[in-house]
Design goal:
41 residues, mainly alpha
Length: 41
């Protein structure tokens, strides 16, 4: 199996780090964060 590009690995690692922290945010903040990510991507 070919090795993944470093950017994919780093994005995955960042997501694994970020998700547990976002779960501690208040619900309204999680909605705003998700909406901003959706808007700017």
């Amino acid at each position: 199996m070919p090795e993944l590009p470093p950017i994919v690995t780093k994005a995955y690692d960042f997501t694994q780090w970020l998700l547990p922290r976002v779960q501690d945010f208040p619900r309204s903040s999680r909605f705003i964060l998700g909406d901003r990510l959706k808007t700017y991507s």
